[in-house]
Structure formats: structure tokens, C-alpha cells
Amino acid sequence: MQSLQEKASEWSGVNPNDAFAIDETNLYRKLGLQTFINLSTNFYNRVYDDEEEWFRSIFANSKKEDAIQNQYEFFVQRMGGPPLYSQRRGHPALIARHRPFPVTRQAAERWLHHMQQALESTTDIDSDSKIKLLNFFRHTAFFLVAGDELKNQKQSIACKHAASKPAAV
Amino acid sequence: MQSLQEKASEWSGVNPNDAFAIDETNLYRKLGLQTFINLSTNFYNRVYDDEEEWFRSIFANSKKEDAIQNQYEFFVQRMGGPPLYSQRRGHPALIARHRPFPVTRQAAERWLHHMQQALESTTDIDSDSKIKLLNFFRHTAFFLVAGDELKNQKQSIACKHAASKPAAV
After folding, report:
1. A72 within 8 A of A39, measured Cβ to Cβ
2. pLDDT tens track for A75-91
């Protein structure tokens, strides 16, 4: 059975080395806190204004300012900065925290569309960092699509209509 | 509704500041790769030899050497070292990857019992690092107990016998 990482790589077209090239340099130190705040603000302004209602509605139960803070605190922590996210909310636990949302391939592509636009229109992000971030985001988005499938496996188990083989994670 | 972090703090008795004091210094640089390999080897030797069959059996479908590698690679990455875990397996996604296992409070306490013994019998871990690691482990263990409860919430939703309110994560 394919692992989460294998699925993420195949579906995103980004191999793990490129996805985690974000760790070659400390991008937090290179770009700074304000750049990540700007990026997440820019991103969620686009998401909450999305003309595609099906995508915009995924976020309807979250306050925009909370979404922005959760995202930039995670980015800062993951990119080598202070662990702002964990101090406030605990482990990122990315798949579990996305459980309430339908993370389909279509949603991943729409998320990436807005993030690419946000990256392009946020100043002070050099092109090398931009490529690294995009590869990380693309791989992660499809990692979460793979994680979303675990919900369906569990449904079968929960309802006892299928074999209760544990998910290979 | 209590967040994962709030549940983890209440049940473990460790507040987030103490849990994430591991980030005050780079423990990977302080302790080194070999110490983490030794710690995980020591830990899993105890687990796979546990006289408590109910706990030992949780690990029956995993190879000991895989369990050791997964654990020390995660520790190294989380404690400020190279991202060994993500390069090989993707995001830690701690809650999702513990889905196949029954992470009860009793299991958390047994895990911590073995880890405390392992910490005490692994050389080259100074007492300050030991306290930081134990606080992190204790908080994380109960964070995963809180995460384990999400499975039950989902069961209700999956079987359509209960309200389909998304989990507050």
C-alpha cells in the first residue's frame, strides 16, 4: 500500500527532496515574520473573496483573522522560526486539524491557485524562496488529500461494513 | 469546547510553556544524533519486552527497528536537527499516524513509564534536558489521547447515528 508520502509525491508531482528543500536554508530568518504575516493575509483575502462559492464556503465557519494567524504561525514555526503555533495550539497535527474540511484534489488545486497568486503579489520574497515554498505547499496540499482519504477508511471500519484493517500510515 | 491543547494540558498536568521548553535550546545540537538513537532503542527494547501484554500487543504489527527509526528521526527533527523524518515520511501528522492504535490514557501512562526509564538509563542526557523532554513527552502523549477521541466523534458521523458537527480542532 502506498504511504502518505508516496501518494503526496505522485499526485503533486513534487518529490520529497524538492518539497523539503525549505529546510536547506532558514526561510524564517531570510524572509522575516512580517513577510509571512503578509503572505497569509494576502492568501486569505483571496480565499474569503473567492468567486468560486464551493471553495469559499469551506472556510465559512472560521474567522478570517483566526485563519490568518493559524497559518502564519505554522509557517513561521515550520520555516525555522519560533514555535508560535505549538505554544498556542500544540502540535500542528496537520491531517487531524483538517478533518472538518473536505480536502479533495479540486480543493487542493484551488488552495494552490490562491497561494501562487499570493506568493507572486507579496513583496520581499525572492524567486528561490518562492520556488521552495511552492513545492512545499504543493506537496503538503496533496499530502492532506491523502490524509483526507483516511476519513473514508475509518467510516468503513466504524460502520462495520468492511474489513477492519488499520490504515497504513 | 476544549481544544486539543487544553485537553493535553489538563490531562497531562503540563502547561504549554513547559511542554515546549524543548525549543528554548537546540536539544539536537546539545545531545547529538547518537543519543536520540540510543534513547529510542532503549525505549523500544522495553516496550517490546513489556510484561504487560495489552501494551506490548499494540506494537505487534510493527517491526521494532522501524519503530525505533521512526521515533528517533521524529525526535531529531523536532529537537532542531535535520528533517530526517519528513524527508522519508512527510509531515509528522502525529494524530493521523496514531490512528491505528488505541491511544488511551492508560496506554499514554504506560508509554511514559517506559520512556522515563529509558531517559534515566540513557547516558549523556543532562538533567535539564531530561526534564524538558519528559514534559514534552507527557504533554504530547495526552495530546494524542485527545486526538484519539476524534476517531469516536467521526464514527458517529460516519454511521449517521449522531449529529454531524465537525470536530473543533
Report:
1. yes
2. 999 999 999 999 999 99
Tell me which DSSP letter residue B62 carries.
S
Ranges of H-type helices in B20-63? 27-31, 33-48, 53-56
* Residue (of B72, B19, B138) closest to A90 by Cα position: B19
Would you state the cell numbers that stand for residue A81, as one nine-digit string?
522560526
- HSE-CB at A160 with a 13 A cutoff on CA atoms is 1
For B63, residues 6+ apart whose C-beta sits below 8 A from its C-beta are none
CA B68 – CA B56 distance, rounded (Å): 15
pLDDT at site B165: 45
Query: Cell numbers at residue A120, please?
Result: 507572486
Residue B81 is placed in which grid cell?
A: 536537527
Give residue-wise pLDDT tens across range B1-30.
899 999 999 999 999 999 999 999 999 999
What is this model's ipTM? Answer: 0.88
A4 touching B (Cβ < 8 Å): yes
A146–chain B nearest CA distance, Å: 11
Asked if A97 contacts B8 with a C-beta cutoff of 8 angstroms, the reply is: no
A154 neighbourhood in chain B, CB within 8 Å: 99, 151, 154-155, 158
- What residues 41-70 of chain A have any CB closer than 8 A to a CB of chain B? 61
Is A95–B90 a contact, with Cβ atoms under 8 angstroms apart? no
Q: What is the DSSP string of B99-165?
A: TTS---HHHHHHHHHHHHHHHHHSTT--HHHHHHHHHHHHHHHHHHHHHHHHHHHHHHHHHTSS--P
